[in-house]
Amino acid sequence: MSLVACPLCDDTGWKPDLKPGEPADGPRRVVRCDCWRENVSRQRLAGAKIPRRYQHCTIANFTAYNETLERAAAQAQRVADAFPVVNQGLFLEGQPGVGKTHLAVAVLKQVVQTTGARGLFYDTRDLLRVIRSTYDPSIRTTELEVLRPVMTADLFVLDDLGAEKTSEWVEETMNLIVNTRYNERRLTIFTSNYPDIPDDTDPNSLLFRIGARMRSRLHEMCEFLPMDGADYRELPTNGGVDDLVTLWKTRRKSPPAPPRGGRQARAQLRDPAVRDGRADLKWPGGRAGS
Predict the structure, then answer these.
(1) 17: which residues sit within 8 A by CB, 6+ positions away?
(2) What is the mean pLDDT of residues 239-266?
(3) Each residue of 119-156: pLDDT tens digit?
């Protein structure tokens, strides 16, 4: 915090609003000072829960070396520049390491820094872990305390959708979050490793992982952007764009990664005998558990 008072507002947060040609001793009007806006933006960025690993991410330092990555970066920039006048969020889809989280965080950061909007980032598994912890009486947190900022954030980034092990509780909880933001028309950015293919029997598909109801909502809420690229985590030390291109071409020739989960998970989800064994959540239709 600066020890020198702001020369425009003397740290009051309000500065004189003088029109060109008006005398300084004329009618007094004030507007919010730039220093106040910057302070609000800093506080909200600090409260956005962006992981330290991604705090350096900007759209400018995102490396786009093929058409899918260039399009994703361009659309991310469009959303960040146009906020809050944006009708659709983004759904960034691709294999691990292509830069989905980088772009999602970059948009979140720019929006919060330039507009002072309330932004929030959560990894899907971490969010569900925090919600589960509210069922522990030793933890003095309620579901509402956890869910309120998720549902009311002006911009919410939900990272790695579909990564959590499939269960009815997971499906109902995620549907509650998505449906609430859908109804309130709040902008959301999702990332997922699972391809959006219309096959609910393929355990490696988005539809299998999240169900038809949520997928339908997402297609209205978001522009889907497939991202094809190398896994930057495999980049050699001091590697550059040429190395990424080489890794990308190698990945394209390799068979897809083995699917996570299996058909049995969805089959169990449809089995009433399995569902009946779980305790009810506090909202209708939900189930507590794994």
Answers:
(1) 29, 30, 31
(2) 73
(3) 999 999 999 999 988 877 777 677 888 899 999 999 99
Q: How confident is the model at residue 102 (pLDDT cuts 50, 70, 90)?
A: very high
The Cβ of residue 57 has, within 10 Å, a number of other Cβ atoms equal to 21
Q: What is the DSSP letter of 287?
A: B
Distance (Å, rounded) from C-alpha 196 to C-alpha 207? 7
Task: Looking at the structure, give the CATH architecture of the domain made up of residues 47-248+261-269.
Answer: 3-Layer(aba) Sandwich (3.40)
Q: Report the pLDDT value the prediction gives residue 128, as an integer from 0 to 100.
A: 94
Residues 6+ apart with CB under 8 A from 268: 274
C-alpha distances out from residue 106 to 27, 61, 204, 225, Å: 42, 9, 27, 16
For 129-167, b/e burial (b = at least 16 CB within 10 A) is ebbbebeeeeeeeebeebbeebbebbbbbbbbbbbbebb
Averaged pLDDT, 20-24: 61
- Residue with more model confidence, 21 or 39: 39
For 252, the token pair is 């394209």
Instruction: For residue 175, give the 3-state DSSP assignment.
Output: helix
Total count of residues recorded for the chain: 290
Query: Helix, strand, or coil here: 236?
Result: coil
Q: Is 222 helix (H, G, I), strand (E, B) or coil?
A: strand
Mean pLDDT of the chain: 83
Three-state DSSP class for residue 193: coil
Whether 22 shows a pLDDT value over 90: the answer reads no
Query: What stretches of the chain adopt beta strand conformation (E)?
Result: 14-16, 30-32, 89-93, 119-123, 155-159, 187-192, 222-226
Report CA 197 to chain centroid distance, whole Å: 21
Task: Read off the tokens for 255.
Answer: 């068979």
Beta-bridge mates of residue 226: 93
